[in-house]
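[Automated response] Your request has been received and processed.

Submitted sequence:
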Amino acid sequence: MIAQRPAMDRRALIAGSLALSAAARPAAASGPTGEAPAPALNIPGVGLPVIEGGRLRNYVFVSLRLHLGAGKTPEQMRPKEAYFRDALVKAAHRTPFLVPGDWTRLDGAALQRSLLASANQIAGRGAVARVEIISQTPRRRTGVRAG
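Generated structure:
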C-alpha cells in the first residue's frame, strides 16, 4: 500500500504567507526611529564625458539617488527624470566634472552641486533635498595621467 500524503490547502498556504509578508513589510520599511524613509528617485546609468584639454578622454557612468523634498513623491518626479539627465549631461559638456590627473572618476561634489541647482529650476525650489552618487563606473578603467 502506498501511504497517502495529506492534501495541501493551497489557499490557506498562500493566505498565510501573504499575512506574514504584510506583517514584516512595515518593520522593514521604517527607519530606526520608526519613521518611514525619505522618498527618493533613482537615476541609473547616466554617461558623462571626461574632457581634458578640449579632448574627450573617457566616459564615466554614474548612478544617482535624488532625495526628495517635503511633499514630493517619486511618482510626481519620475516624469522629470529625462530633464534631470539632460541637465546633467549638458553641464558635464559645458564645465566637465574633472578630477585633475584621473580620467576614471568625476568630481562628486561639483556634480552634486550642479544637479541640485538644475533640479531647483526643473522641479521647483526644495523639490530635491540632496543628491547622492551611488556609483561611478568608467568606460575605460585606465587613464590616470602621469605627471
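Summary generated for your ticket: The longest strand covers residues 55-68. The chain has a mean pLDDT of 81.
If you did not submit this request, please reply to this message.
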